[in-house]
Amino acid sequence: MKLDFRFAVISDLHIALPHTIWDSPSRFHLVEVSIPAFEQILEQLEQLELDFLLLPGDLVQHGERENHQWLADRLAKLPFPTYVVPGNHDVITRQGCDRTLPLADFPRLYQSFGYSNPEQLYYRQEILPNVHLIGLNTNAFDAEGQPFNSGYIDAEQLAWLDAQLAELADRPERFVMVMLHHNAIEHLPGQAKSAMGQRYMVRNAGALTERLKAAGVPLMFTGHLHVQDIARCGSLYEITTGSLVSYPHPYRLLHLWTDSQGQKQLQIESTRVEAVPDWPALQTTSQTWMSDRAFPFMVKLLTDPPLCLAPSEAKAYAPQLKDFWANVAAGDAVFDYPHLPQPLQRYFHRFSAVDADGMPQAIDNNAVLAL
Description:
Layout: E1 4-9, H1 34-45, E2 52-55, H2 65-75, E3 82-84, H3 106-109, E4 123-128, E5 131-135, H4 155-169, E6 175-179, H5 195-198, H6 205-214, E7 219-222, E8 229-233, E9 236-240, E10 250-258, E11 264-272, H7 282-292, H8 295-303, H9 311-317, H10 324-330, H11 342-349, E12 367-370
Parallel strand pairs: 1-2, 2-3, 5-6, 6-7, 7-9
Antiparallel strand pairs: 1-10, 4-5, 8-9, 10-11, 11-12
Helix pairs in contact: 8-9
């Protein structure tokens, strides 16, 4: 069967009604722009002939019920189906409270957006003929109901996934995609071994990726890291999309089709929200906002393994690297810091978008992937 469909991805919306916004001088997120930026994108998407929209988690600022309700009501008005999964900001404690959503209520509230079983935190939907979307829950909590400092997929969910993949294996013409919030493939060098990087990953990622590769699943869509990046593990691609509320405020338009040779192709186009009311120079303002708040992050990166610099050294170098994370977030960056010592130059060059031969490979924002 030949495939031909179009869809969009917007990630880490962090929707915040104005009266819910909490003040934190050091935050990277410009949640003030969440609703106007989202509305601007939806207005553009409504002009396209989209088959569906994916939202891979962190739908609201910090678990607020009223922000969740606003979003569910807004999604219900769209002319195309939308599918969601929870992110770490969507449920901040398992039981919730009078202000925040408990985990069990997430699939009930978003029942129209993937969760045909409102009692289950993961789902499989045939979103188009022979096109299946598996939405996973990577939020996990300890015995006291507090969240893990990373993503995790429990044994019950993995067993359910095995059953779904086994059933789909009997349908040779099916095409399967997976959506989750946390990363299951590294998007940064050494991410799975770094204490800073691990918080953005599924703790038992191998249990997921090996299952998906064995089943011939070619695509995962994730968020959480707030960067534009495409990573690959064998035949499995993971496309992570940057946050709506942090630089560069991106979203993706995708077209998947089967070519004349029977090869599945995925065209990815990325665009940015350039301005919203009250933020006429959003791109410049947002990049400066992030750079101005980068010092503590860069000091921690420099003092943590594998660099392990002394705090005094890290504080001396950090100002020279203030734009580093903004460039990572934008995707397709090539890093060259000739003024830094050689070990630091080599370390930061590893974050460059280059191929195995060291040549620029700009696929994070716009690309055509053969699946």
